[in-house]
Amino acid sequence: MASLHYLSATELIKLIRSKEITPVEIVEGTLKRIEEVNPTLNAFVALRAEEAMKEAKNLAEEIGAGKETGPLAGIPLGVKDLEDVQGLVTSFGSIPYRNNIARQDSIQVARLKAAGAIVVGKTNTPEFGFTGFTRNLLYGVTRNPWNLERTPGGSSGGSAAAVASGMVPMATGSDAGGSIRIPASYSGCFGLKTSFGRIPLGPTPFLQMTHMIALGPITRTVRDAALYLDCVAGYHPCDPASLPSPRGSFVECLERIPSRLRIAFSPNLGYARVQKEVMARVEEGIRSFEEMGHEVELWERPLPDVGETWASLTNCELYGMLHRSLDRHRQDMGRTMVQSLDLARSFSLQDQIEAQKVRTELNRILWELFDEFDILLTPTMPTEAFAAKGPPPAEIDGQPIPLLGATPFTYPFNLSGHPAASVRAGFTDNGLPVGLQIIGRHHREDMVLQAAYAYEQMKPWNNLWPEVGRGLA
C-alpha cells in the first residue's frame, strides 16, 4: 500500500469502512506528518490537535458500534485562513486580525464537519487573499513542496502545499480571480472553482457586491473533489445568492461523460503570452482529449481583456469589507493592498456602469462559445511557479508582460461566473507542475468534473508527489 500520507480521501474512506485503519490512526499520522513537514513549508498556521484527536476517537467508537457515519468520516481537512472554524483564529493573514477568534463555523466548514471530516487546522494565505503567491506579514512565506525556492501559488497556497506534501488529502479554497486554480496548477493538485453560488458563502456581515468569489476544494484526485462537492453544495439562507441543491450526485456522474464532447481550445484567449515549456505540456493534454475520441477545435476568437475591470471590482469588494478598519489599521497591512483599496474609494457610479458593460460583453461571447462547445480548455497558468517570496514574473521567455499577464487565464471566469478546474498536465524541465484549465457552462460542474475525471484516468497523476519529508513518512 502506498504511503498513508499520499492516499486519496476516497482510498482512506475505503480503509476506514473495511476497518483496516481507524480515524484515530489517520489523524495521529496526519498530525505527525504536519509536525515533520510543516516547519519547512509553512502551510499550516494554526492547529486544533486535541480537538481533532477527540473527534477521531468519537468517530472510531461510532464505527466500532456499527453506527452510520458521514461520507467523509475520519478524513483530515485543512481550512484556508479566510474561512471560519469555531474556536480558531480567522486572521485573514493580516496582523490586525491575529486575535479574531471565530464564534461559529462557516457554512462550508459546518457541512464538511457534518459529513465526518475532521478539521486539523488553518492553512496560510496572503493577506485577505490579495495576491497569487502566499506571503503575509503575520505568518510569512509558504513554500512549494516541489521546489522550496518557489511559491505554491495563492491565495489558497497553504491549502495546496498541505495537500501536495501529504499533510492532508483535501483542503478548502476560495477563488476571486484564480485563488484555487493558481495553486492547484503550481502545486500539481486538482482544484475546482465552482459556479458562483454553488457553495454558500458566510455567514458574513457583508454580502457580496460583485458576485465573483466562489468556494471549492483542493484535492489530489477528481473523485475526492466530487465527493467534497456532494457534501457542501446547496442553498443556505445566509447566502441569498446560493444555488439549490443539485439533482444528482457529482460522484455518481463522473463516468457518464458524453462519448464525443465538442471542445474548444484557446492557447492564449487572444491576449496572453505563455512560457514555451508550459504550452508544450498543455498541448499534450489537448491531444489526450483527441485520443479519447473527443472533437477538439482551435478557438481563435479573442476574449476582451477584462483585467482592469476585474481588478477594479475586486478592489471594491475588498474595500466594502474593510472600509471601516482600513484607516485604523493601514500601518499594519500590506502596502500594495492598501494602495489598491485607496483607489477603490474613487470608483464612481459611472465606473460601475462601464464595468457592467464589459461584463455583459464577456458573457455574450462566452454564451456564444458554449452554445457551440461543451467545454473550453486553456492553460491554467502561463508560467511555472515563480519565487516563493515573489514578485510575479514581469516577462515570459524574454518578452515583457503586464502585471495581470502573470494570471491571464483565471480571472475572466470569475467575472463571468463559469465553473473551472485545473488538472495536472505534466512538468517543466525544472520538475515543476503545469496545469490545464477546464471551463464549463454556467452551473455545469458535472461536465467539468466528468472531463477532468476522464483525463485523469488517461493521464493519472496521483502516484507522483514531491519528495519533501518522504524519508520521514
Topology:
Layout: H1 9-17, H2 23-41, E1 44-47, H3 49-64, E2 76-80, H4 107-114, E3 118-123, E4 135-136, E5 140-141, H5 157-164, E6 170-175, H6 181-187, E7 190-193, E8 214-219, H7 222-232, H8 250-253, E9 262-265, H9 276-291, E10 295-298, H10 307-329, H11 335-344, H12 349-372, E11 375-379, E12 395-396, E13 399-400, H13 412-416, E14 420-427, E15 433-440, H14 445-458
Helix pairs in contact: 2-3, 5-6, 7-14, 10-11, 10-12
What does this structure look like?
This protein is 37% helix and 14% strand. Helix 2 (23-41) runs antiparallel to helix 3 (49-64), helix 7 (222-232) runs antiparallel to helix 14 and helix 10 crosses helix 11 (335-344). By secondary structure, it is of the alpha/beta class. The protein has one domain (4-308, 346-472): Amidase signature (AS) domain (Amidase signature (AS) enzymes). The chain contains 14 helices and 15 strands. The two termini are 13 Å apart. The protein has helices spanning 9-17, 23-41, 49-64, 107-114, 157-164, 181-187, 222-232, 250-253, 276-291, 307-329, 335-344, 349-372, 412-416, 445-458; strands at residues 44-47, 76-80, 118-123, 135-136, 140-141, 170-175, 190-193, 214-219, 262-265, 295-298, 375-379, 395-396, 399-400, 420-427, 433-440. A hairpin with a 5-residue loop joins strand 14 and strand 15. The protein has an eleven-stranded mixed beta sheet, sandwiched between helices. Strands 4-5 form a two-stranded antiparallel ribbon. It has a two-stranded antiparallel ribbon with strand order 12-13.
